[in-house]
Amino acid sequence: MSGVGERVFLSLGSNLGDRLGHLRSALDALDLGYPTAIKDISRLYETEPVEVSGPQPPYLNLVAEVDSLISPMELLRFCQGVEAGLGRRKKGEKAPRTIDIDILLFGDVVGEWPGLSLPHPGILRAFNLVGLADIDAGLCIPGAGLVVDLLQRSDRGGIREVEGVELRC
Questions:
Q1: DSSP per-residue codes, 75-111
Q2: Which domains does the chain carry?
């Protein structure tokens, strides 16, 4: 990828079908070089669904750091296209999904637009903090503090590292 883009962190999760396959496919789509390129990936975690009504299968979650040469809204549309391409049909915040890609941070951008809040409202969920800490524990979340400090105060129950899995071929 040519040029220097914004430092962006994405949360990826899947709890339907071939969860690992969906995550791998999403990572491949995000690593095209333009408009995004992956710089780093957290470890893989299995997590219990949070803030949902009714039973759902567990999620596989990770955080990816990407360079982005496009605006936050363009990145949101790109991520939604990746989700649709991987079979995400129902766009409900609490619904199970084949793939979910959330923009956690986009550089130092803070703001709200239709369908997008930065930092993401769910950035302080423990599974996102754990993934962010894998990449950069000293990262500052605007308005909240350092990832390492926030993680120390979070409840990590229901988060289990999945070992021995290669996320990228």
A1: HHHHHHHHHHHTT-----TTS--S-EEEEEEETT--E
A2: 6-162 (3.30.70.560)
Alpha helices for the chain (secondary structure H): 19-30, 72-85, 126-136, 147-152
Task: Specify the pLDDT at position 54.
Answer: 73
What b/e string do you get for 135-155 counting C-beta neighbours within 10 Å, with b at 16 or more? bbeebebeeeeebeebbeebe
102 is catalytic: yes
Q: Indicate which residue of 19, 24, 77, 102 is catalytic.
A: 102
Catalytic residue of the set 67, 88, 125, 134: 88
24 included as an active-site residue: no
b vs e for 18-30, b when ≥16 Cβ sit within 10 Å of the residue's Cβ? ebeebbbbbbebb
d(CA 42, CA 167): 10
Within 8 A by CB and 6+ apart from 43, the residues are 62, 131, 134, 161, 162
Gap between the Cα atoms of 24 and 21, Å rounded: 5
Each residue of 106-140: pLDDT tens digit? 999 999 999 999 999 999 999 999 999 999 999 99
**Bridge partner list, 63:** 11
pTM more than 0.85 = yes
Residues 163, 141: Cα–Cα separation, whole Å: 28
